[in-house]
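Anyone opening a protein record will find just a pair of labelled lines. With that in mind, the following record should read easily:
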Amino acid sequence: MFDEVAPGYDRTNTVLSLGNDQLWRIATTRAVAPRAGQRILDLAAGTGASSVSLAKSGAEVVAADFSPGMIAEGRRRHGGIPNLTFVQADATALPFGDEEFDAVTMSFGLRNVNDPKKALRELLRVTKPGGRIVVCEFSHPPSRAFNGLYRFYNDRILPTVAKAVSSNAEAYDYLNESIKDWPDQRTLSGWVREAGWTDVAYRNLSFGIVALHRARKSGR
């Protein structure tokens, strides 16, 4: 499914999110706070839009994704960036050694992993002591009134727009269902803590449509 939508993936996301995806990317990059000399893993990187944003700092960025179609599209678009590499990877069995990365991040991908708790443990394994994790993911607006409007948009408007702008509208039916089934902010924070991360916190973006989760790996 993700292979099929790779060529138009970023454009479709911008349309369906009414441009908010770019604001979420900025917030995520600021939370990761990449610096030159650091090694950063961007998991579920898709075509690499988030990875490019991180790589502008001079950090060495590894863009990893389960979809070979996404990785191929990312290499086609951004393969000339010297401090950015693309790797196909399973989030539950990462092809990296222990404590390789200063920071790990995942945007709108944890929801698509078969075992998200295992993925959080894998991210902990490959992070250096004192390193940090940033997870940007769809969530549940705390306002009942706004949540009603949000559900109306996802149920009635999003499918129609997806049919017009996407090569695979069924993929965005999956998107809507996966958001409905995904746990709320506090539950996901609990999963992060259970995986072994410390200093767990989150903040809502766009009234809670998205939540930015942050934590650290304790030092030795």
About this structure: The longest helix spans residues 144-165.
